[in-house]
Amino acid sequence: MDATTVRGLVQWEPTQPWELTDIELDEPGPGEVRVAIKAAGLCHSDHLLLGGGYAGMSRPVVPGHEGAGIVEAVGPGVTSLVPGDHVLLLVPVPACGVCHACISGMTYFCEDGQYTGGGRQITDHTARHHAKGQDLGIFVFLGTFAEASIVNERSCLKLDPSIAFKDACTIGCAGVTGWGAVQNTGRLETGDSVVVVGVGGVGANAIMSARFGGAKDVVAVDPLASKREAALSFGADHAFATFDEARDHLRDVTWGKMANLAVMTMGEGNGQLLDEALSLTGKRGRCVIVNVHPDNEHDAKLSLRALQSSEKQILGCLSGSWHGREGASFLLDLYRRGLYDPSKIVTKTFTLDEIDKGYATQSAGECVRAVVVVD
After folding, report:
1. Tens digit of pLDDT for each residue in 135-180?
2. What is the mean pLDDT of the chain?
3. Is residue 160 domain-shared with residue 194, that is, in the same domain?
4. CB atoms within 10 A of CB 311
5. Which domain holds residue 195?
6. Which of 61, 256, 332, 351 has its C-alpha lying 20 to 30 A from 170's C-alpha?
């Protein structure tokens, strides 16, 4: 791989498919590093970007935000990383540490997140990626669907070299988001009953989180038989194809009390299913919305009476309500102690040239999370 030219995917316009092309990389600026991407997870958020989603994201843009790789070069002022370090890339934003959100412990809501749509470097809001004479943005400050990317030092967490890149790469998004949605946003308590709707990368991690956190009953809902089978291997007690089946089961095993927590982790959210999700929960039941909804969706179906009379709660969730560094460090510690195995989620790998096939395979339920591996 040339020091300044790499292959990567670019989406030129919101309505166009991405193109695998040559990308020119500048040298890392102050506080930045160049990372050779060795593995990148195929998160549905990137597929939503491909379909024209994220209307506020400027194009052209390099997609991809789940990744792991090796530091190749560091810019001025970088102190925590050196060339050769293995790193996990973190989302959603390289937090500044000094804004109100950061000092309030909500670094995932750092005010610098307002610059996500521009796709430029957080330090000076200029581009380090270029192709065909145009500046390129990078999705979620990362742009992992390429052989290498320039990212902020704060977006990197050192990895033990013994951890395989293909296993580690999903931790930064799917792992942190799924586990955090249950533990942080959903406020899981020991003995709770939990329903996870949608068994993709995030849903699989939510199931593991509920099992690890002491849930009494863990129920998965997914229309695909392969995903339901996978859910049981991740720790679900039962898996059903429909909301109706899950509702009947919960009514029986909880003596009508229903679930304490429902976590929505479908590939793409659907507001018309919100009432179905809430119906799985009982009094003061919590429904956590993790899956991304289309930009133009503004309507949802739900029983306002149930919301009021049963004090049910609808909770939004960004990145597991967790600082990526804290969440990923927690999961990596569990991994080292044999209590968390992200390799169970990744059962199919593809090359950059095969990324469309990877997403098709994932959508068909032939794997829970597909990963692009870069040699």
Report:
1. 999 999 999 999 999 999 999 999 999 999 999 999 999 999 999 9
2. 95
3. no
4. 10
5. 175-318
6. 61
